[in-house]
Design brief:
Helix content: 10-25%
Radius of gyration: 12 Å
Number of strands: 5
Number of helices: 3
Largest sheet: 5 strands, mixed
Structural class: alpha+beta
Bound molecules: FE2/S2 (inorganic) cluster
Distance between the termini: 32 Å
CATH architecture: Roll
CATH class: Alpha Beta
Oligomer: single chain
Number of domains: 1
Strand content: 25-35%
């Protein structure tokens, strides 16, 4: 089962999630990483859920067109739209205040 490590505001939150988990879907039903994960649309349109991948990015699929459109050059800095990711492997993410300000 994927083990998620989530950094926010200098704090670290960790939890194991089911395979094929979407963190925005979970936060939407008030499960980890709620209430710490910022998100809005859940559809790749707002970039509020953008996080920088610290570890485990090699297991993720390539960014989809929504991520490319929303993140642009931030993709090269390791950012992904968490609402567009279904996790199958361990991952470590940080959501920084500036990550939400697209
Ligand atoms: S929540 Fe809007 S892009 Fe992910």
């Amino acid at each position: 089962m994927p083990f998620v490590t989530f950094h926010k505001h200098g704090q670290v939150f960790r939890e194991e999630v089911k395979p094929n988990t979407n963190l925005v879907v979970r936060a939407g039903i008030k499960q980890f990483p709620y209430p710490n994960l910022s998100f809005q649309c859940g559809m790749g349109k707002c970039a509020t859920c953008a996080c920088r991948v610290l570890a485990g990015g090699e297991h993720l699929p390539p960014p989809n067109w929504k991520e490319k459109k929303q993140l642009g050059e931030r993709l090269e800095q390791g950012f992904r739209l968490v609402c567009q990711l279904w996790l199958e492997h361990d991952i470590e993410l940080v959501q920084e205040p500036q990550a939400a300000a697209a």
